[in-house]
Write a structure and sequence with these properties.
By secondary structure, the chain is of the alpha+beta class. The protein has 20 helices and 21 strands. A hairpin with a 2-residue loop joins strand 8 and strand 9. The structure holds 6-diazenyl-5-OXO-L-norleucine (DON).
Length: about 575
């Protein structure tokens, strides 16, 4: 089945010094990569190239690569390796990623799937208790069973072969230097370490990130990671094979097997067999723009295309960012696309996902017609599309972690890359090689059967769990690159990306202000409004919405190509910056 289906100027640096990060609330224990405060909107401009990402050291590494003549893809690799070190809660070589790449000269958009894969031995009851009930969230996440075969190194290698300019090993230098010389623990990393009970209990992470008394190492403390430097040197010198075979692979297997909780079943063969996959992009229209992203196993690209198509008939420009109707409409679009996601989306190599039917213009028109400006849809159900599988609704929890970065190089090539180890600090297992392993397999549905039908996103060996990651590239009516963006946020990602696009396209906001603008999320019967949107809460409730006000650490990093050059924005809810030249 699997093979059969696989066919298809100055630098402008905005700093966060003295920002709201100085006063960081303690994260909730149940919210693994929690909201830790926000700063003012952060922007940057450039004429030649630009990097926007979640940490200043990573952005600087990307900028150095671009300044040295590297491509957007080269810079993306350098950025992600540094993020692994300085933002270890979010992404790294122990995890996976999706890359959306625009090649300006060839006018070609390509998307790469480096999603983690379940070990061959994984069975559908992996996250069920002995009496067949779904495990508790942290019960499933912590330990070896949640660890998928990491995809990041392979997908970086595949994309580098196609789009790299500088030698592979050169891209590892910034992260190796920082790992050897040390970096200052950021306030956000400190807050997240302090709030995580599980990481503090498992070696070697405990000794690495906490002091002898179990306190998180303080912000500003210089942390060196020589083990990670040695791992990177190996991969830099010998290529991705050094990760998927040999000592690093053996270390991963051993870490997973000997986990103090939920020892896992990943084998050396699982690692050796892992392949990154190029997949067809998914694209849709919004106003005069073409919006493209990642298809399944991500639900994100389809979710954004569907949500925008549902919003299209409404005059959001006239309604504006203060109108409750704007938020009602975005919530309804979210609810409808979320309903389709829960039913239809999974690994297309295991399940015949009806991707084309879900973004077909007539289907989208019918979905849009369900939404009214003055009424709430009583129930947001999945639509009916021709399908070769008896699909059924089932959901899986996705927890806040993950990182997104956007890059444009001097040739006009662009990378939108979202990279993840799933929840904050992933499985909490750190290898001897100095990196943390993902818990991506808990992105599968825990239940394997619902209403007597097999769940599309249930666990199976050699299958990839559904994702919500939404790296996105937008083109103007002349087919020219105009926007590069994405965000972490688990199932909230689609809502974060949609509101950012609406803010840029309909409300003429800069990328920084669009990233900073408040979000509304519609999922199932619930609507979540970001703090600050309280003025529209009562209006939404009058329409029948059940509304909760909440904060969330989105991490939107966006670049827009304008007639005056590149303009970028970094999400004030994280520690990122923009550097442009
Ligand atoms: O692939 C996914 O959709 C999730 N594992 C991503 C998790 C995430 O974005 C958490 N974000 N803050």
């Amino acid at each position: 089945m699997k093979t059969l289906l696989r066919t298809v100027s100055a630098f402008v640096i905005l700093t966060m010094a003295g920002s709201a990060f100085a006063q960081i609330p303690k994260p909730e224990a149940s919210d693994p990569e929690a909201f830790t405060g926000r700063s003012e909107p952060k922007s940057g401009t450039g004429k030649e190239w630009m990097v926007a990402a979640a940490n200043p050291l990573a952005v600087q590494a990307g900028a150095d690569i671009l300044a040295a003549g590297g491509s957007a893809l080269d810079a993306a690799i350098a950025v992600n390796l540094v993020l692994n070190l300085v933002e270890p809660q979010s992404s790294g070589i122990g995890g996976g990623a999706f890359i959306v790449h625009w090649d300006a000269k060839a006018s070609s958009l390509r998307t790469y799937d480096g999603r983690e894969e379940a070990p061959k031995a994984a069975a559908e009851n992996r996250f069920l208790t002995k009496d067949g009930k779904p495990m508790g969230r942290m019960q499933a996440i912590v330990g070896g069973k949640s660890v998928g075969v990491p995809g990041l190194v392979r997908v970086m290698e595949l994309a580098h072969k196609n789009h790299g300019k500088l030698p592979w090993a050169r891209l590892f230098q910034p992260a190796i230097a920082l790992a050897e010389n040390g970096f200052a623990i950021s306030p956000r990393l400190n807050a997240l370490l302090a709030g995580d009970r599980n990481l503090a209990m498992i070696e070697p992470a405990r000794s690495f990130y906490y002091d002898a008394g179990g306190q998180a190492k303080a912000a500003g403390v210089i942390l060196k990671n020589p083990a990670f430097a040695a791992t990177l040197r190996e991969i830099a010198a010998k290529g991705a094979d050094a990760f998927y075979t040999g000592a690093i692979a053996a270390d991963i297997v051993q870490t997973v097997e000997s986990a103090p909780q939920n020892p896992g079943d990943m084998t050396l063969d699982d690692l050796k067999a892992y392949k990154a996959v190029e997949r067809p992009p998914v694209c849709g229209g919004y106003r005069t723009y073409k919006v493209c992203g990642m298809g399944p196993p991500s639900s994100g690209g389809i979710g954004v295309i569907q949500s925008l198509a549902i919003l299209e008939p409404h005059n959001l420009r006239a309604l504006g960012p203060k109108s409750p109707v704007s938020y009602h409409l975005m919530a309804e679009a979210g609810r409808l696309s979320f309903a389709d996601r829960a039913v239809y989306m999974a690994d297309p190599d295991s399940v015949p996902v009806p991707t084309e039917a879900l973004i077909a213009p007539d289907y989208l028109k019918a979905r849009a017609a369900l939404v009214k400006e003055d009424q709430r849809l009583p129930v947001a159900e999945a639509g009916k599309v021709p399908a070769k599988h008896a699909f059924v609704t089932a959901d899986s929890p996705e927890l806040p972690s993950t990182t997104h970065f956007s890059i444009v190089d001097r040739d006009g090539n662009a990378v939108a890359m979202t990279s993840t180890i799933e929840s904050g600090f992933g499985s909490r297992l750190m290898t001897k090689g100095g990196f943390i392993l993902n818990n991506q397999l808990t992105d599968f549905s825990y239940e394997d059967v619902a209403e007597k039908r097999t769940v599309a996103n249930r666990v199976a060996g050699e299958k990839r769990p559904r994702s919500s990651m939404t790296p996105t590239i937008v083109f103007n009516k002349d087919g020219k690159l105009e926007m590069v963006l994405g965000s972490p946020g688990g199932p909230a990602i689609v809502g974060f990306v949609v509101k950012t696009l609406v803010a840029m396209i309909d409300w003429d906001m800069s990328p920084a202000n669009a990233a900073a603008s408040p979000f509304v999320l519609g999922m199932g019967n619930n609507v979540i409004l970001e703090e600050g949107l309280e003025p529209v809460k009562t209006d939404l409730e009058k329409l029948g919405h059940t509304v909760r006000v909440n904060n969330s650490a989105s991490g939107i990093h966006a670049i827009r190509v304008t007639k005056d050059g590149l303009v970028g924005g970094a999400d004030p809810r994280r520690e990122g910056v923009v550097i442009g030249k």
